[in-house]
Design a protein that fits this description.
- By secondary structure, the chain is of the alpha/beta class.
- It is built from 11 helices and 10 strands.
- The strands form 2 sheets. A 6-stranded mixed β-sheet has the order 6-7-8-3-9-10, with helices on both faces. A 4-stranded antiparallel β-sheet has the order 2-1-4-5, with helices on one face.
- The protein is globular, with a radius of gyration of 21 Å.
C-alpha cells in the first residue's frame, strides 16, 4: 500500500488587500473657466493624518470642498470607505455629516458653548440629553478642562484658539467618519496651535484626517503622510519622514528649499 500523502496546496497565498479611507481617481474641477484641479488621483489610509502642502493656488482647499460636497461640479471618482460619494445615501447633506470640514477661521454661533457643541445633533431632545457627548467631544478637542465650569457662557467669549477647538468639537459631535481641516491653526498663538495639533493626532487614531497647511514644520510635527500639490495636481505623495528627508521630485525639492514652486 502506498503511503498516504497530504494534498499539496498549489494556490498562492491570498494577499490581504489594503483598505483605504478615501480613493480619488481622475478628479478635475473647473471654476470660472479655470482648471483648479487637474486629473488628480491619490489614496488616503483608513486612519491617520495626511498633510496637504503646496503654494497658494495649488487647489488644496478646493480638494477639501470636493470631498465635502461643497463643490459638486467636479469630474472623476471619489470613494469614501469604498462608496461613491455621488451616490451617498441621503445625498450631499448626509455626506457632510460624514465628512466634517473645519475652516481656517473658526465659526461659532451666538449661543452657549454647550449649545455650540451639540448644534449638529438631530432633534432638541437629543441635544438636551447630550451632556455625556458634550464632555466627550470637548475632551477630544482638548477644550474640556478650560470650559467645563462655564458651559453656559457665550461661545463668542472664548479666545480664537478655543473657538477653533469648539468648531472641531461640534464637528465630532455628529460622529463623522472623516475630518477635513483647512489651515486650522493659521491665526492661532503657539499654545493654541500645540493643543489643536495634539487633538488632531488623537483623532487620527480612529479616522482619516486630511489637513491643509502652509506651515511645513506643522506638517512635520503631524507626521503621517504628506501630499505635495501644485497647479491642481499631486506632484508627490509619501510618508512624512521620507518626504522631508528625500523628496523624489525636483519640484518637491525646490519647494522645500525655497517655498516656491514652478511646476510648468
Amino acid at each position: 500500500m502506498l503511503p498516504r500523502t497530504e494534498p499539496v496546496n498549489t494556490r498562492a497565498p491570498v494577499q490581504k488587500q489594503q483598505a483605504y479611507g478615501v480613493e480619488i481617481a481622475g478628479l478635475s474641477l473647473q471654476l470660472a473657466g479655470t482648471e483648479v484641479l487637474q486629473n488628480l488621483s491619490l489614496v488616503l489610509p483608513e486612519t491617520g493624518i495626511t498633510a496637504v502642502i503646496g503654494p497658494s493656488g495649488a487647489g488644496k482647499s478646493s480638494l477639501l470642498r470636493c470631498l465635502n460636497g461643497l463643490y459638486q461640479q467636479w469630474r472623476g471618482e471619489v470613494r469614501l470607505q469604498g462608496r461613491d460619494i455621488r451616490r451617498w445615501p441621503g445625498g450631499w447633506d448626509s455626506l457632510r455629516r460624514q465628512v466634517g470640514l473645519i475652516a481656517q477661521k473658526p465659526c461659532v454661533f451666538p449661543c452657549s458653548i454647550r449649545a455650540n457643541a451639540v448644534f449638529g445633533m438631530y432633534g432638541w431632545r437629543q441635544r438636551k440629553k447630550a451632556h455625556g457627548s458634550v464632555e466627550t467631544v470637548l475632551r477630544q478637542a482638548a477644550l474640556w478642562q478650560e470650559v467645563k465650569d462655564r458651559l453656559h457662557a457665550p461661545a463668542e467669549s472664548l479666545s480664537l484658539g478655543q473657538q477653533q477647538s469648539l468648531s472641531i468639537a461640534r464637528a465630532l459631535a455628529i460622529r463623522p467618519g472623516m475630518l477635513l481641516l483647512d489651515e486650522p491653526t493659521a491665526s492661532l498663538d503657539p499654545r493654541s496651535k500645540q493643543l489643536i495639533e495634539q487633538a488632531i493626532k488623537q483623532l487620527a487614531e480612529t479616522m482619516p484626517v486630511l489637513c491643509v497647511t502652509h506651515d511645513l514644520e506643522q506638517a512635520r510635527r503631524l507626521g503621517g503622510e504628506v501630499v505635495f500639490m501644485c497647479e491642481g495636481r499631486v506632484i508627490e505623495q509619501a510618508a512624512c519622514e521620507r518626504f522631508f528627508a528625500q523628496p523624489q521630485r525636483l519640484e518637491s525639492r525646490e519647494f522645500l528649499r525655497w517655498s516656491v514652486c514652478d511646476c510648468d
